[in-house]
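In this section we walk through a basic example: taking a raw amino acid sequence and producing a predicted 3D structure, encoded as discrete structure tokens. The instruction is simple. Fold the sequence below.
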Amino acid sequence: MYLLRDMISKNQIKLVRQLEQKKYRMRDGLFVAEGPKVVGDLLHSGFQPRLLFATDDWSSPYVSATTTVTCVSQEELGRLSFLQHPQQVVGVFPMPEATNAEECPHPAANELYLALDGIQDPGNLGTIIRIADWFGIGTIYCSRDTADVWNPKVVQATMGSIAHVKVVYTALEELLEGCGMPVYGTLLDGDDIYRQPLSPNGIIVMGNEGKGISAPIRRLVTRKLLIPCFNEAPESAESLNVAIATAITCSEFRRENRRTH
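The resulting token sequence is shown next.
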């Protein structure tokens, strides 16, 4: 049974609200997660909350006996929440330490990774983390200009997968130059992904929503891939959303290697 507290302070509300901004997240080393699914997955994965605010209809078997949960009304939860419809619980958690390349091991030769080159939309980043989790990709490397993984919108879009996937910010060019494994990239001049042999290991690069993969990273791609458009009508879609493209690409890698093994 965890500890209960019935009062929420103005300073606590101020702290939570400030964490919407990156400068305060970086200053305090904290991020916000909301809802039974996201908070529950973080607790289950061993994340220890600094603060937990919950309505009386929330409970979790993963809260330790020493954790204090502040009981709040639905109105008070709304003052804390970044969601249009607050969901029972808001948690404030310390950021994991290993979010930069200096604290992350070199890519293992037998693993499959994602690398994100300048992804800007928090919803896209969160969805890609969720996709990586689904397809068993445990680490995502991000360029330093990629959206902040601890943005509340990113955390929420992961639907709990933020607890299972390591996200590392690094100089992608340096990482790819020395990785010693296939580097795949989705490009307009690539080869049809459905007709290519795909290795079980390597790094899959996904580019910026509007500009695609940047020129310095593009030159390091050793295997160019294209997701072909099957609609030949002149008014068809010009491109795919980057998160959808990531899902298709990861699915094809896993399908190809399940078929060949």
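Looking at the output, two observations stand out. DSSP finds nine helices and eleven strands in the chain. The chain has a mean pLDDT of 91. In the next section we compare this with other chains.
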